[in-house]
RNA sequence: GCUCCCGUAGCUCAGUUGGAUAGAGCGCAACCCUCCGAAGGUUGAAGUCGCAUGUUCGAAUCAUGUCGGGAGCGCCA
């Protein structure tokens, strides 16, 4: 019996007992949790306190009655007691958690897979940076967050599509084309200024050189605007893909804004909005009544000059996603876009008639610290710390771990000097070391011709506190996945990984795995195998490798 | 001025559908390798959970106010 089923069974038994005592009230939710401090038992419930009002009795008194009425004879519970203001604590039998070991070994990397998101198609859109330069550190955070979340939700059973929206229809692309054109002309020593608000990054010069290499001087006289545009988008996008690839982030769909115009999605969406009666004309512009759906005011969707605002194709884009059959849309946006959420959600509700189909996760800013001072970043000036720099100087694993360790919605500092230092100050080495250590133990065992036994189901030698700590964590893996997926919080997996590594290192220092006692050795090796399976799987979820040697 | 996010140990951060003595890493102090990898372990010092009031058996968590940091308030994207 695993921990989740045990909790569920226990809950059923408690409800039965409450009914016997005629206290039962279905509006009170029964929660069974694992106490932070294990001296408070392996499982605990606060029902007695919750029922204090209903039963009109002291919580401890209710707890006593409840334990009397509770039948746990069929469960692997050693004893039960009452503590503090009225908590009921359950202490499991020593052997209760042993069977998690064969379960894990049998299921392998599918251990912890859930059917939480069964039949739910989810689209996660993230990064979606305009191809006007390299990815900087903030984008890296978005990439790590989106990719990790996608992996976790996939493990939880959702049908996940990772999508990147390429804004190749807007003003910034116009500026990009003009910037490349200027750099191109400069390559021929022609005096050309980069436009106001243009892009000054190194990659623009590289792109201009590539353009020159391919087309020579053809477009010095001839108008090459459209070509500068498409060549620029294509070249810069390829560059982004290279970096993302190195960061172990991939996308299932690259969606181009241009498609929305080509397919007349924008037109038909505008028509739909008009047909539904949520638009009106004022000052020569067309407005959408988003204020009727929780936005602070109405928004223009067609400007008085006839062109669209940024919002309009974006509504069409989300509409397009819904038409592709997604049940849930998740956008991961930078903190500077939070003012945009209300109007987008309002528009999506008008289009789809559904309220909660779009879930926007906001990623707060990353403050970069170097030499003890904040580094201000600006993409346009080209003075940004790029993902590429980070990959070159720090490496993929520490960066992904670092981002995955923070909750999305918190501002964070990144001390570059620290990150680059590659010392034990970076906890990623701590968890990777756990994996390397297990490998090393298996190497030693191999010399003695010993290995784990996948069929083993009794573990008589594994009965100390350190072992139980590890087993409890292994048993808690599925619920960690569930909590992480439900709350869209990849960092919960990272916290779990760290706990598991700590429990393992502690065990390693207190117990000797390989001894003359062959039976005991094999039991330990089998436990280590299970730890390793879970450790590697959890690390994979956040995009971090588990090296065999370091 | 209005809206959103954040404020927890010296530093970086967990913990918030209200629960037991508020946790981790780094840094600091002291111990542990004749023994499977010391990139490790054990122990310790370190906190008015920004502040105030309220809600109740119980508040870091909820409400109101307030102070500090960040972001957003376009017919920009």
Strand content: 5-15%
CATH homologous superfamily heading of the largest domain: HUPs
**Percentage of helical residues?**
40-55%
Rounded mean pLDDT score: 90
Low-confidence stretches: none
CATH classification class of the largest domain: Alpha Beta
CATH-assigned fold name of the largest domain:
Rossmann fold
SSE blueprint:
Blueprint (H helix, E strand, L loop, with lengths): L2 H18 L11 E2 L9 E3 L1 H4 L1 H4 L3 H11 L7 E7 L3 E6 L7 H8 L13 E5 L11 H19 L3 E8 L4 H16 L15 H14 L9 H22 L6 E4 H6 L2 H11 L3 E4 L2 E4 L10 E4 L8 H13 L4 E7 L3 H15 L5 E6 L2 E5 L2 E3 L11 H7 L2 H10 L6 E4 H5 L7 H20 L17 H11 L1 H10 L4 H20 L7 H24 L9
Parallel strand pairs: 5-6, 5-11, 6-7, 11-12, 13-15
Antiparallel strand pairs: 1-2, 2-4, 3-4, 8-9, 9-10, 13-14
The chain binds one RNA strand of 77 nucleotides through strand 9, strand 10, helix 13, strand 15 and helix 17.
Explain this structure to me?
With 550 residues, the chain is α/β, with parallel strands linked by helices. The protein has 4 domains: 3-92, Arginyl tRNA synthetase N-terminal domain (Gyrase A, domain 2, 2-Layer Sandwich); 121-166 and 251-363, HUPs (Rossmann fold), CATH 3.40.50; 171-246, no CATH class; 427-541, Isoleucyl-tRNA Synthetase, Domain 1, CATH 1.10.730. The chain is built from 21 helices and 15 strands. It binds one RNA strand of 77 nucleotides through strand 9, strand 10, helix 13, strand 15 and helix 17.
